[in-house]
Amino acid sequence: MLFSAILVAIIATLSQWWVSHTVTRTWLYPIWVGFLVAVCMGEPVKGMQAAAYIQLTYLGWITAGGTMPGNLMAAGVFGTALTLISGAEPSLAPTFAVPFSLLGILINQAYMTLNSFWIHKADKYLEEGNITGLRVMNYVPSGILSAILYGVPAFILVYFGGEFATNMLSSIPQSLIDALKVVGALMPALGIAMLLSYLGKRKLIAFFFIGYFLTIYLKLDIMAITIFAATIGVLMYLFTNKNIETEGEV
C-alpha cells in the first residue's frame, strides 16, 4: 500500500502542476486521471468504472470567464481512490468525488495565490538577467506547492484511509446508502443535461439527433459513430473551404 500511496501522490501532484498540461490536457478529466489512480492501486477495471461515473457528472464542465465550478483533477484522484479503498460500488463514486471537487476549488485558489509570489521573484530575476533563477522560480516552487497541497493529502488518503473509510461506510445506514445511489445516478444525468444545453443550437442539434438514432435504431457502437462523425466533419471542412476559395476567386 505504501508504493501505491506514493504513486497516487505523484499523480495528484502532476495533475495540478504545469507538467500535466505539457504532456496532455486529458490529465484534467477524471476518466483519465482516475484510471491512472486505479492502475496504481491495482484495480484498473473497478477504478475505470468509478472514474467513468465521476466523468459523467462533469460532462458539461467548463471554466467560462475564469469561474471554476469544480476541481476535476481532485474529483478524479480522490474520488476514485476513496471508492477503491473503501470497497464501495463504482456507482457511489460521484458522491465521494463531488465533496473533494468542491474542496479542490479552495485548494486551487490557495495554490494559485501562493504561486503569485514566485512570479514576482521570477520578474526580479528577469530584470537582473538571471535566466537560471527565472526558470527555477517558474518550475520548482509550484511543484513543491502542488506536492504539499495535493500530493500529501492523496498519500494520506491511500495509506491511512482504507480502514477509516471502510469503518465509516459500514456505519452508514443502508437507507442512506440507497439514497446516495439515487443521488449518484442523478448527478451523471445532470452532467449530460449540461452538455446538451451546449448542443441545443440550430446548427448543432441535428447532429445530436443523428447520433441518437444511429445508436438506438441502427445499434451502432460508440467507435462506429465516432468514425462516422469524424468522416462527416472532414467532408464538411473540405467542402466549406472549397466554397470559400471559390467565392474568393470570383
TrEMBL record:
<dbReference type="GO" id="GO:0009401">
    <property type="term" value="P:phosphoenolpyruvate-dependent sugar phosphotransferase system"/>
</dbReference>
<keyword id="KW-0813">Transport</keyword>
<protein>
    <submittedName>
        <fullName>N-acetylgalactosamine permease IIC component 1</fullName>
    </submittedName>
</protein>
<keyword id="KW-1133">Transmembrane helix</keyword>
<feature type="transmembrane region" description="Helical">
    <location>
        <begin position="180"/>
        <end position="199"/>
    </location>
</feature>
<dbReference type="InterPro" id="IPR050303">
    <property type="entry name" value="GatZ_KbaZ_carbometab"/>
</dbReference>
<feature type="transmembrane region" description="Helical">
    <location>
        <begin position="97"/>
        <end position="118"/>
    </location>
</feature>
<keyword id="KW-0762">Sugar transport</keyword>
<keyword id="KW-0812">Transmembrane</keyword>
<feature type="transmembrane region" description="Helical">
    <location>
        <begin position="139"/>
        <end position="160"/>
    </location>
</feature>
<dbReference type="InterPro" id="IPR004700">
    <property type="entry name" value="PTS_IIC_man"/>
</dbReference>
<dbReference type="Pfam" id="PF03609">
    <property type="entry name" value="EII-Sor"/>
</dbReference>
<dbReference type="GO" id="GO:0005886">
    <property type="term" value="C:plasma membrane"/>
</dbReference>
<keyword id="KW-0472">Membrane</keyword>
<feature type="transmembrane region" description="Helical">
    <location>
        <begin position="26"/>
        <end position="45"/>
    </location>
</feature>
<keyword id="KW-0598">Phosphotransferase system</keyword>
<feature type="transmembrane region" description="Helical">
    <location>
        <begin position="57"/>
        <end position="85"/>
    </location>
</feature>
<keyword id="KW-1003">Cell membrane</keyword>
<feature type="transmembrane region" description="Helical">
    <location>
        <begin position="206"/>
        <end position="239"/>
    </location>
</feature>
